[in-house]
Design a protein that fits this description.
With 152 residues, this protein is mainly β. Helices cover 6% and strands 28% of the residues.
């Protein structure tokens, strides 16, 4: 298995980091324990010069990772503690998606402030609560369902 080490100068929230990556080296490694996809830990030989590396590509996963920590172990081993960069790993799917995003005055907290760039401009808001029977939905309160409909 191969890991390609890079120096990354791009913001972590940037999707396309191609221009900001400088390859340092490719290093072969053997998994001596289980490696997870989201947060892999990779053991490398101490002889591998990885100074300056803060980003990597792991070929077996086909994914890009931030190097969060480097642990220098006894026995001339370096453990790279990584976490996935989902934006760059899945950039093609993200950039090729047709989506309609609504801006909000506070990130993560949608509000009733209208977005002037959104193509639908509601003139009236209607909120109605409808009690659902036990048909296809579970009646247990641990399984809530919300139906949102927007139109003109």
């Amino acid at each position: 298995m191969m890991v390609t080490l890079y120096t990354n100068t791009a913001d972590v929230y940037k999707i396309n980091k191609t221009a900001a990556l400088t390859q340092i080296r490719q290093v072969s490694f053997t998994a001596t324990k289980q490696i997870t996809f989201l947060e892999p830990r990779i053991d490398l030989d101490y002889a591998s010069d990885i100074s300056g590396a803060d980003y990597c590509y792991i070929d077996i996963f086909g994914a890009w990772y931030f190097i969060d920590d480097k642990i220098y172990d006894i026995g001339k081993k370096i453990t790279l503690v990584c976490s996935i960069d989902p934006l760059y790993t899945f950039k093609d799917g993200i950039l090729n998606s047709d989506v309609c995003c609504i801006r909000s005055e506070s990130p993560g907290h949608p509000t009733d402030v209208p977005d002037s760039q959104y193509p639908i401009h509601p003139s009236k808001k209607l909120t109605e609560v409808i009690e659902l029977g036990t048909g296809i939905f579970k009646s247990d309160p641990a399984y809530p369902y919300f139906l949102t409909v927007q139109g003109t």
